[in-house]
UniProtKB/TrEMBL annotation:
The protein, known as: SDR family oxidoreductase
Keyword entries, A-Z: Oxidoreductase
Family: Belongs to the short-chain dehydrogenases/reductases (SDR) family.
GO molecular function: oxidoreductase activity
Pfam families on file: Abhydrolase_1, adh_short
Originating organism: Streptacidiphilus fuscans
Keyword Oxidoreductase recorded: yes
Length: 591
């Protein structure tokens, strides 16, 4: 997307470089204000994505990029920066209020306008990323000191530790010297190593920006923090809270504005301080969702859940209130019990099954149990194209899931040498590839969304209990167990938990649906009947597994064996695998 450059002159004569993307005729204008030590370049990836729907503007703040850099520190006060923003707005959107977005110092300086009177009617909404209002911070510090509980003092100490650099930036000589020497190479390398910022994505004008921008700290920090003003606002504010921010703690950035902002949305993001460069797609999406909502368009479910001070709906205090949960194989047994348990816990539930009617029935029962929203889909989990369509439909109709339970599975019994290739295809297709498709499609959605989540894969005790009559089934479940362990390691940095649940003998329809190879169809019916009787005698209800699934999510457990036989088997697989090998040789097929 083409970037157009022009200049604006601020009231004190400073020339500011302005950059625009997308059509000026678009219904909405989004103005992006960068931080320190950056230029408008930090916004490029986000601007290009937003420009598909909005007129997007970024400008180099005075002292940075192609804008003028006055020498005096007093030329960088928040009031001067607000006058700069006013001049930019006058040029790029003289008639309509804009949606303002700020990162780091861009956010700090934008709060000045959001909480002031000069530009209040020119701003339709504000998205703040890693840059609090200095007055709110000053008040937050004072309120903690007025009520010095151990928790309050801990939060103060934690934020103070993260703010060490503010004192350092006030030192004479050393900061500019280091920016011009060691930090020229070290800073981009540090950002890459610590935050994963792509190499070469920084502003070409760094380190000059870094040296000149020190004036931002020197002109504003001490006066604003030591004499904080009362700064309320009626402008709707979305605060993005990067959870791994090394400079602005999420507790402070999330709490400080609350007493002063009438309409506040808080959105935790699994990212570091430079989220615009590492999580551009998520941020572009969140900005777009917020702008769309404020302009009167549809409200994304995740945004709705993020609103603070919203009157609570019935049942919202429940454990999974506000969550979206997907369960495959939800038409029967463990899947249905799990879907209903999440519904009772307040979640919106999507039931998917090969059988459309049974999925719809589960969705209906879930709504009777209090699920605020339900959906049902007929999907064959072993069909990659059908799973892609399913994931797309869920994304469009319900948003990104918080929990995905890959449960659909089928049984297969009999000797390995009687098992045909087609039998392997069938059992691996559903039990393994069904889980793979679910993890791949929904895992990617969760990761892109940046809000964490949980994937539960229903494996089996057969995953670690070898058996001469269950080779294909046990192999498929062992693969699910290992997939879950690997994926858990891969997704942990994104705040996505992965659990494998290993039930044991559970009284469901599976015994009657299991196929046996190497026997006649009448013999198969007999085996099914006998197995079913044994499962009934064991009488472990699927609700027990559903409880284990909720526990796995709550406690982020890696592997959860459920029934006593599953727990004992797991212990033996570690302590005495020889015993299990001996048991594996017994033919336990019910005869
Ligand atoms: P179940 O037969 O009662 O339910 C399985 C559900 O999955 C059914 O509704 C079925 O229609 C659906 N399904 C089957 N193939 C599908 C496909 N290709 N696409 C979408 N849906 C499909 O069985 P259950 O006991 O509730 O089993 C659920 C899971 O638990 C399975 O993965 C199973 O292997 C596992 N498990 C069950 C037991 C047990 O003793 N019941 C023990 C260990 C593990």
């Amino acid at each position: 997307m083409k970037e157009q450059q022009s200049f604006v002159t601020a009231p004190d004569g400073v020339r500011l470089a302005v950059f625009e993307w997308g059509a000026r005729s678009a219904d909405t204008t989004v103005v992006l204000v960068h931080g320190y030590p950056d230029s408008h370049v930090v916004w490029r990836p986000i601007a290009e994505q937003l420009a598909e729907r909005h007129h997007v503007v970024a400008y180099d703040v005075r002292g940075a990029g192609a804008s003028d850099a006055p020498r005096r520190v007093s030329s960088y006060t928040l009031a001067t920066l607000e006058a700069d923003l006013g001049a930019v707005l006058q040029q790029v959107s003289p008639e309509r209020p804009v949606h303002l977005v700020g990162h780091d110092w861009g956010s700090i300086q934008s709060w000045e306008s959001v909480t002031g009177t000069a530009l209040a009617d020119r701003i339709a909404s504000f998205t703040s990323v890693s840059g609090p209002c200095l007055d709110h911070v000053g008040q937050w510090f004072r309120s903690k000191l007025r009520r010095p509980s151990p928790r309050a003092l801990g939060q103060l100490a934690w934020q103070s530790v993260h703010s060490w650099y503010i004192g350092y930036f006030h030192l004479p000589l050393l900061p500019p010297l280091l920016w011009r020497t060691a930090m020229v190479k070290a800073w981009p390398a540090l950002l890459h190593a610590i935050e994963g910022v792509p190499r070469g994505s920084g502003a070409p004008t760094f380190p000059t920006d870094a040296v000149r921008g020190l004036a931002l700290y020197r002109a504003n920090m001490i006066p604003r923090l030591s004499r904080p003003r009362h700064r309320p606002t009626e402008i709707p504010v979305q605060v993005v809270l990067p959870q791994k921010d090394l400079y602005v703690t999420p507790s402070m950035a999330g709490q400080a504005p609350q007493p002063y902002v009438d309409r506040l949305w808080r959105r935790p993001l699994r990212a570091g301080h430079w989220a615009p460069l590492t999580h551009d797609a998520v941020l572009a999406n969140w900005i777009d969702e917020f702008v769309t909502h404020i302009e009167g368009g549809p409200t994304a479910p995740a945004l709705q859940r993020a609103e603070v001070n919203r009157p609570q709906q019935d049942g919202e205090q429940k454990e999974h209130a506000g969550k979206l949960v997907i369960v495959t194989g939800a038409g029967s047994g463990i899947g249905r019990a799990t879907a209903l348990a999440f519904a009772e816990a307040g979640a919106a539930v999507i039931a998917a099954d090969l059988n459309a009617e049974s999925a719809a029935r589960t969705a209906h029962l879930a709504s009777l149990l209090g699920a605020p929203r339900t959906g049902s889909y007929a999907v064959d989990v072993s069909d990659p194209a059908a799973m892609e369509d399913f994931a797309k439909a869920v994304a469009e109709e319900h948003g990104t899931p918080d929990v995905v339970v890959n449960n659909a599975g089928i049984g297969l019994g009999g000797a390995f040498l009687d098992t045909q290739t087609s039998d392997w295809d069938a059992v691996l297709g559903v039990n393994l590839m069904g889980v793979v498709h679910g993890c791949r499609l929904f895992g990617a959605m969760m990761k892109d969304h940046g809000n964490g989540g949980h994937i539960v894969n229903i494996a089996s005790a057969a995953a670690y209990l070898p058996s001469r009559t269950l080779s294909a089934y046990a192999t498929s479940k062992a693969a699910v167990l290992m997939l879950s362990e690997c994926l858990r390691a891969e997704l942990s940095d994104d705040g996505i938990g992965v659990s494998a649940v290993c039930p044991g003998f559970v009284n469901t329809a599976i015994a009657k649906a299991t196929r046996y190879v190497g026997v006649s169809s009448s013999e198969q019916e007999k085996l099914r009947g006998k197995a079913d009787r044994l499962y009934r005698m064991r009488n472990l209800p699927p609700e027990r597994v559903a409880d284990a699934v909720l526990r796995a999510v709550r406690e982020n457990r890696p592997v959860v064996p459920v029934a006593a036989e599953a727990r004992i088997g797991r212990a033996l697989s570690r302590l005495s695998p020889g015993t299990l090998r001996a048991i594996a040789r017994a033919d336990l097929t019910p005869r």
